[in-house]
């Protein structure tokens, strides 16, 4: 197909006009205690591009029910892997490893998760996406909380938005100075499925659970503010 200079110029002008008039432009490429469900309303609409990943993804919509890079597909039963280990109560034992090389074991409970390697710590278990703008905006908050609470708190983040190459993972960690372990979601499909069935996670990203002593004390659907999650952490100390 032949494209003339004039036609190319008109197409460029039209494309530029459309981009400036849409929001989809911007980002790079065992107890009975029930969890408290918290839905954040602080959903930003723009982020700075990240050239280190060399990809461009649509800006996430503020509508938590919309399909975008902040809304992943749910795990189907056909995607589940055979359980290798289960507890006496039937909870699966997930033997995982972070992208940084750290072994992380997560044991299912009816009302939370146990992290044997992270004893006596409050754990933030986060589902995030590498192209989710709200997730990226939340990373400085996670880094700040980890520095603030030291060995009293750990963050375990699952990157669940498709595969991520080692180069992309290293760029993401370096760009955002991530100091907490990140797990590839494709190695933890069974865990994601359990979160879906137990906590009603619908694929909205980010999705966070605040866990202490194996019990999920709070969950957050969508981006959470520093003050909101920090107040909840302080109430657990």
TrEMBL record:
<dbReference type="GO" id="GO:0016491">
    <property type="term" value="F:oxidoreductase activity"/>
</dbReference>
<dbReference type="InterPro" id="IPR036249">
    <property type="entry name" value="Thioredoxin-like_sf"/>
</dbReference>
<dbReference type="InterPro" id="IPR000866">
    <property type="entry name" value="AhpC/TSA"/>
</dbReference>
<feature type="domain" description="Thioredoxin">
    <location>
        <begin position="96"/>
        <end position="237"/>
    </location>
</feature>
<dbReference type="InterPro" id="IPR050553">
    <property type="entry name" value="Thioredoxin_ResA/DsbE_sf"/>
</dbReference>
<dbReference type="Pfam" id="PF00578">
    <property type="entry name" value="AhpC-TSA"/>
</dbReference>
<dbReference type="GO" id="GO:0016209">
    <property type="term" value="F:antioxidant activity"/>
</dbReference>
<protein>
    <recommendedName>
        <fullName>Thioredoxin domain-containing protein</fullName>
    </recommendedName>
</protein>
<dbReference type="InterPro" id="IPR013766">
    <property type="entry name" value="Thioredoxin_domain"/>
</dbReference>
């Amino acid at each position: 197909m032949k494209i003339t200079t004039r036609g190319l110029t008109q197409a460029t002008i039209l494309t530029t006009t459309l981009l400036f008039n849409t929001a989809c432009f911007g980002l790079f490429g065992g107890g009975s205690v029930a969890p408290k469900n918290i839905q954040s309303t602080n959903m930003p609409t723009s982020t700075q591009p990240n050239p280190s990943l060399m990809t461009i993804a649509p800006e996430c919509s503020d509508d938590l029910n919309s399909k975008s890079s902040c809304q992943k597909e749910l795990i189907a039963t056909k995607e589940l892997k055979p359980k290798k280990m289960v507890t006496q109560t039937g909870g699966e034992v997930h033997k995982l490893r972070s992208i940084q090389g750290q072994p992380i074991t997560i044991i299912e409970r009816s009302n939370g998760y146990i992290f044997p390697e992270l004893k006596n710590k409050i754990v933030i278990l986060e589902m995030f996406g590498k192209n989710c703008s709200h997730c990226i905006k939340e990373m400085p908050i996670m880094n700040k909380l980890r520095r603030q609470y030291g060995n009293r708190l750990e963050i375990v983040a699952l990157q669940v938005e498709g595969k991520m190459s080692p180069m992309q993972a290293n760029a993401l960690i370096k760009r955002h100075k991530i100091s907490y372990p990140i797990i590839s979601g494709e190695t933890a499909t069974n865990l994601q499925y359990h979160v879906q069935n137990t906590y009603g996670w619908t694929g909205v990203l980010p999705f966070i659970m605040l866990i202490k002593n194996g019990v999920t004390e709070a969950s957050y659907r969508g981006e959470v503010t520093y003050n909101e999650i920090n107040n909840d952490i302080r109430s657990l100390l």
